[in-house]
Design brief:
Structural class: alpha/beta
Largest sheet: 8 strands, mixed
Mean pLDDT: 97
Strand content: 15-25%
Bound molecules: pyridoxal-5'-phosphate
Shape: globular
């Protein structure tokens, strides 16, 4: 809750209710409507693109679903990072894809594995979370981004880059977006206001070629007729008022010490088990050597007061965490450093 500037959002929502009553309680315009024009302009400015390249959805998971529906034919292959965001995999499979997991290293996908796989089958698209990946915390290096875009052009597949955590950078400098390296519109970028403003407003968006944005809008209209104009108008006002930028600054101040403390807690209490040391985001992750199986370990953790997501759920079918380890995603963002360290202490007592 401390990450959501609810008072300021409420103040701006009142302004919207005062001035836009006649539109926000009506359907949005019908006919390939890509979203509130002011919101699209604001998002375009926020990301250094143009408004005709932005399509707004009800949260970014829906953007993933619509893009998958647009790009996929039954039986198509989708490449994902292993591990990856489990809900994305579910969405792609529901849209008929065969999901192929490729190993993720501490600086992005294993490019040799990508190249080798491309010799046997070319995907409809590759899905990547290039910044502070969920679940691993990994950021893809600039050189791997360039190589991915080069391979996409060579083998003619699309890339979906999902960037909900990109702005939550607490140190270092950001590598370019894959979209910024792409010269022939093969990359679709998926963004979200969930982690930088409010998840309850349900504002996600896709950015890419205007023709694709328009196709996505047609698909969306056939699915939910109209987005919720009130949410979009409030989000537009929050961006215009500078609240998103301001909140990102706040979040950086809040999270930077939490990340630092989380890394320290893991290193001192669990040893050298971090997958990577992220410079932002929500997660640090570990591959923890254990002598039991995952379910038994997680039960024991829960009994000691630490509830954790099942790490193997982030591994698509046919892949698994490293033999003899459990994969643990440790979300440090919502916990005070001492609370987090106490949790790590309990995990440490389970592995001695
Ligand atoms: C990588 C990634 N993509 C998409 C989403 C979905 O976010 P939302 O639908 O709230 O925009 C999440 C949520 O945690 C996420 O981690």
């Amino acid at each position: 809750l401390e990450a959501i500037p609810s008072k300021s959002i409420a103040r701006l929502a009142e302004q919207v209710l005062d001035t836009q009553r006649d539109t926000v309680f009506q359907y949005a315009p019908i006919g390939k409507y890509t979203g509130d024009p002011e919101l699209r302009r604001e998002l375009a400015t926020h990301h250094g693109t143009s408004a005709d390249r932005v399509f707004v959805t009800n949260g970014s998971l829906q953007a993933l679903d619509l893009v998958a529906a647009h790009l996929l034919n039954p039986g198509d292959v989708v490449y994902v990072e292993t591990p990856t965001y489990d809900r994305a995999v579910q969405v792609f499979e529901r849209r008929g894809a065969r999901v192929v997991g490729l190993p993720l290293e501490s600086d992005g996908l294993d490019m040799a594995a990508v190249a080798a796989r491309l010799d046997t089958e070319v995907p409809a698209f590759l899905y990547t979370i290039p910044d502070f990946q969920n679940p691993s915390g990994v950021t893809t290096s600039a050189s791997k981004r360039r190589e991915l875009v080069r391979l996409a052009a060579l083998h003619e597949f699309s890339i979906l880059e999902d960037i909900p955590y990109r702005e939550l950078r607490y140190a270092g400098t950001a590598p370019p977006l894959l979209a910024e390296l792409d010269t022939d519109d093969r990359v679709i970028t998926i963004g979200s206001l969930s982690k930088v403003l409010s998840p309850g407003l349900r504002i996600g968006y896709a950015m890419g070629s205007p023709a694709v944005m328009s196709d996505l809008a047609a698909l969306a209209e056939g699915t939910y007729l109209s987005p919720a104009p009130l949410s979009q108008a409030i989000a537009a006002r929050c961006l215009a008022d500078g609240l998103v930028r301001e909140n990102v600054e706040q979040l950086r101040k809040l999270m930077a010490p939490r990340l630092e403390a989380a890394v320290e807690a893991v290193r001192t209490q669990l040893g050298d088990v971090l997958l990577t040391v992220p410079e932002g985001g929500y997660y640090v992750t570990v591959q923890l050597p254990v002598t039991t199986d995952e379910a038994t370990f997680l039960d024991a953790a829960r009994a000691s007061g630490v509830g954790l997501t099942r790490g193997s759920a982030f591994y698509p079918d046919g892949t698994a965490p490293r033999e003899g380890t459990v994969f643990l995603r440790l979300p440090f963002q919502a916990m005070e450093p001492d609370e987090f360290a106490a949790g790590i202490g309990r995990l440490a007592s389970l592995v001695v």
